[in-house]
Amino acid sequence: MRSVRQITLCPSQRNWVFCLRTIHRSAIMWQDKCEFEEFQSGHCAGTIEDVAKKIQRNIGVKPGYHTIPVCRSGLLKFQPKREDLPCRCIKDSFTTAVVPISSLSKRERYINHLARVRVGRLMEDLDLFAVWICHRYVKVPKLPRGVPLPYVFVTLLVDKVDFYNFNTVDADVDIEFCGHVSWVGRSSMEITIYMRQQQRNITKTILMMVARNATNTGSAPVNELQPCNEAEQLCFDDAVKRQERRGRKAPILRPSHNDEKLMFDIFRRTNGTDIVRDERIELPENSAWMSQSFQTTLIHPFPDNRNSQNNIFGGYVMRNAVEISFMTASIYTQSRPFIECIMDIAFLSPIKVHSFLKMTAHVVYTFEQFMQILTVVQVMDANTFEEVTTNTFNITFRAEQNVKEVLPSSYQETLWYINGRNKFQDFQQLKAKRNTKSLKV
Fold first, then answer.
1. Residue 128: what pLDDT?
2. What are the pLDDT digits (tens) for 215-228?
């Protein structure tokens, strides 16, 4: 084992290190503040529970579960045309809400047995908050007073959730959500949301929402976004670039030449040089088979997790997917890893309240202290028992020590391995970009 040389700093050197660290921390806080301070409207929706009540009131949903959803077809006549909707700016949609974990009566909902904040629970609230931002943004001037908003807002995809040292979050201090619309299409909206604690950012999330009509049977137009100052224009331009990148993404990519070289290298390590051999050689030291590095569970959703159309909330799916991913990473590392990033969550189809959920989390790539988890969500219709894949999650975790290398043993697993490596490289670029921004101060 290579020895590690201990470095001793003299007092003057220690002062310089302290100053540099202080400047770096200040730079990060300055960057966090400047990212959205121009958009602040002063609007606060109260607690996240208040947000849920306001959404229900806006769309006219009354308490109580009905096996057949309450008919909202009467609201279709109030569906506006795009030209009847006034332009809006980013500041019009900006709002905040509080997760009151400083309250003893609320805290148990948001912490785990180690008294750490539950990431999955916050993801569930974040999805709800994104819907509220849509309510803040969409304005229908000709809607008669007292008529519910003739819209349904659903989550299309989560582009990324970037975590800023989430392991340092206090479990007894309130967390604030703040966010705004950053891009708009004809019926789609990009939402940017920050989680903050004690005036510093702990996560930044970018997700796409879609506006549907009152019965969720077709798309609905939303107000055009018109930036009203230089800061909003910069935010909008960045969002346009992200939207262009999304349009260029292909669902399945053929392995590149470098990927194929990597695949063959893995094959030689796991099957030897004899290409006709149909048995795997002995597992390399400090490694694990991907085929044995997964966890799966079945979940039965209930009506308290459904919307007005009796579809399961996207936030409920996110919470459970994040939690099984964490358990898989914990079992693999035999420790309590920290979440670093969530990328590319696609919501492919609605999940009815009478469905069963099957979630499987696979360790698909590892590098030093990091591991990439691919979690696949399948829905089983409780009446026909037909299975359909509805979601995939790509989540990066970091352990306190280097982890075992995961190795594929089939072509399908090798494709997962390559995809996991690509997602991890995207995470590294995101982290480098964030650090570069903070050091430009």
1. 94
2. 988 999 999 999 99
Letter for the amino acid at 361?
A
How far apart are alpha carbons 438 and 441 in whole angstroms? 6
- Alpha-carbon span 201 to 199, nearest angstrom: 7
In one letter, which amino acid is 410? S
Q: Which residue(s) pair with 341 in the sheet?
A: 162, 396
The long-range contacts involving 282-285, CB below 8 angstroms and separated by at least 24 positions, are 283/407, 284/405, 284/407
Stretch (H or E) spanning 135: helix 119-137
Helix (H, G, I), strand (E, B) or coil at 294: strand
Residue 35 burial class via C-beta count within 10 angstroms: exposed 0-12, middle 13-18, buried 19 and up = middle
Neighbours of 221 (CB within 10 A): 19
Secondary structure letter of residue 115 according to DSSP: S
Tokens of 240: 């346009």
Rounded distance between C-alpha atoms, residue 235 and residue 38, angstroms: 10
pLDDT digits (tens, 9 = 90+) for 58-95: 988 877 777 777 788 899 999 999 999 999 999 999 99
Q: Work out the burial of residue 32: count CB atoms within 10 Å of its CB; fewer than 13 is exposed, 13-18 middle, 19 or more buried.
A: buried
Question: Where in 348-408 does DSSP place strands (E)?
Answer: 355-367, 370-381, 387-398, 405-407
Diameter of the chain measured on Cα atoms: 76
Rounded CA separation 35/206 (Å): 13
Beta carbons of 70 and 211 less than 8 angstroms apart: no
Q: Residue 291 has what DSSP assignment?
A: G
CA distance 299 to 18: 49
